[in-house]
Amino acid sequence: MSWLRALRETARSGLTVERRRLAPAIAARGALGLALVVGFSLAVFGPAVAASSAFGAFQAAIATFQRSWRPRPTLALASGGSLAVSTFLGYLTGAHLLLFLALLLLWTFLSGLAWAAGPTAGIIASSNVAIMLVTVTLPTSVATAAGHAVMIFAGGLVQAALVVLLPVRPWGAQRDALADALAAEADYARRLRHDPVAPFDPVPLMTARSAAAVTPRQARRRPAELHGPRRLAERIRPVLASLADPAVGAPAEGPQRDRVRELLAAAGTVLDAAAHAIRHGKPVRLPPAAVSVLRTPDTGTILADRPHRAALRLIALLGDVVETAEPRTETSPGEARTAEEAGEDAGAGAGAGAAADARARAAHPSLAARTRPTLLRLAPVVLAKMRAEVRPGSPILRHAIRVSAVAAAGYLLGLALPFGHGYWAPMASVMVMRPDFSQTYARSVARFGGTLVGVALASGVVQTAHPGTYLSAALAVLCAFGMYLLMRTGYAVSQVCVAAYVVFLLGMEGSGVTQTVRERVLLTLLGGLLAMLSYAVYPAWETPRLRGRLADWLAASGRYAAAVAARYADPAGPGSPDVREALLAARAARVAWHDALGLAGHEPVRHRGLSHAAAEGAGHALAEFGRAAMLLEAHLPERGAPPLPAAAGLAEALRETTERGAKAVRERTVPVWDDLRETVAAWDTEVTDPLLRKAPRLLLDALDELSAALSDA
């Protein structure tokens, strides 16, 4: 992609307004916390303290909107506390240019490294640096600075208290994540009716797994219906695939295929009903038509062998999903009876899958409920991740270097220019800069456009209405409410509200519009240009790393397939932890590949060894490889079943061949699979089971497709 086209695409994406479901109750709660803090501070301490405390409450409320599974009060307290410390240290060094520059460099460098811990930590850290640049100008003495820091933390404390006192849809994020996973399974089941080899995106399942990790305090309060359905959804996916795939399941046409389509449609309906119940905390309501399909005894006479066993397993798992999705701790006796009937209607065998899970957890402690460390216990983990990124070639390290250099340069330029309020330039840079090209450029354009509109609107109001201190405070709170309400619909829209909020807030303590409007627009433009220029001079492109990402996915997929094959040589049952860990690693590598591919698609660089067509073909081939391994996983033998000695050789061949293939991909050569081909040929002569004979051939065909795609790179 050329630079001109890349700039045009990023500008368009930055100014895009998305249609999202708004959360007015949550936005109103954040605005209420801000109003309480500003009103109290104005009445007791005056406009200057009110402005700094307002920034603390404003930022703490933004922190509660971040995509995080931690308790919202924790996020508000962490944001308010870290901003208070940043402000106090900034004021202590603010009178000495060199000391303040050193602190700014250190703080922005650490905020850049904080992206190693995830986007929530990175956004909060970057916002703290940006707001610190404003708040350090408000105090007039060390004692006053300490008081401002205390009020900033108090703003975060108020927002945390409101989250506790005025809960809005508790566990809503976790409910949505689990419901989205079940809905994705339902959509997958329906697509399999028309396309028996339809692909499945595991991201909803991965998100649900991340949401299932809870802190000790959360574990004591988590609703019962959020405990089990995710693991059941994980087990349903391979069963759906094996039931639908004509290579190992029912024939492509005929009565068996018709019955499979009916079962898949019923499965989609049941999963949708469970997803709706979990999302809204209501009992599961199953349509009678879906229940009758699952209960009919004709399935045993129409389907035979593996398709019949897959159908019985699917019915049992669906029954478990219905049973675990019921809000048992919140239902009335009548609703509980309905839930029990629904679980029975889902099919005979309901509860067998849950019992198997319980046995697996008892035998393998690693399968127990996932826990999330508290913030204090998380600190060393975050520090370790940040230290791990201090290495050559790390995109996080490059981002940290870029953002710290740009912040210092912007601050010096702001001081040198005859505008005043020079902190607007570095503040704009820190707020828009991200570790990747597309977000940095899109946010730079969006911030300038939003700032221009917001400042123009706010200045028009001030010049015509001449609001006093309290009216300015009320207008600032109103703008904050608009920002909270619209922040997920687009960055440009939210920046309109933020720009107006800052104008009204600083006007409240005496900084007139004539001191902020023109200067802020020009310095915001300067900050955005510095951010964009820094990425052009010192980039961290994803395009050259695509082959490495593809190799990682190939190696992880090979380890997953090898782990599945090894379970046939040493049966350990469906709950085998090594298969589960290998599957999770393969999913993580797949997501990393797709994320990198999406970022590379917007970068103004050539493909450097992997064209778009080759990347698409290679991705499709590895997806097929994973699907073939999943078909084998769907029929893992139970613990104590007769072993299949030849499977050990297949597992070793899969592991070694894919490792060598991954090395070849990194070295820009076409991998060959001769050793695996010989193993599969020998396998065909030793194994008689139709599924076990077909699955290795499907794995080899997918690898051949990968080589064909890479040969055209």
Automatic annotation (TrEMBL):
Protein name: Integral membrane bound transporter domain-containing protein
Cellular component, GO annotation: plasma membrane
Primary location group: membrane
UniProt keyword terms in alphabetical order: Cell membrane, Membrane, Transmembrane, Transmembrane helix
Family listed: Belongs to the YccS/YhfK family.
Region Disordered, residue ranges: 325-355
Cross-referenced Pfam families: FUSC_2
Keyword Membrane: yes
Domain of life: Bacteria
Topology with respect to the bilayer: Multi-pass membrane protein
Domain Integral membrane bound transporter, residue spans: 411-533
Organism encoding this protein: Streptomyces filamentosus (Streptomyces roseosporus)
Localization annotation: Cell membrane
Record's keyword annotation contains Ubl conjugation: no
Spans through the membrane: 123-143, 149-168, 400-424, 444-462, 469-486, 492-509, 521-541
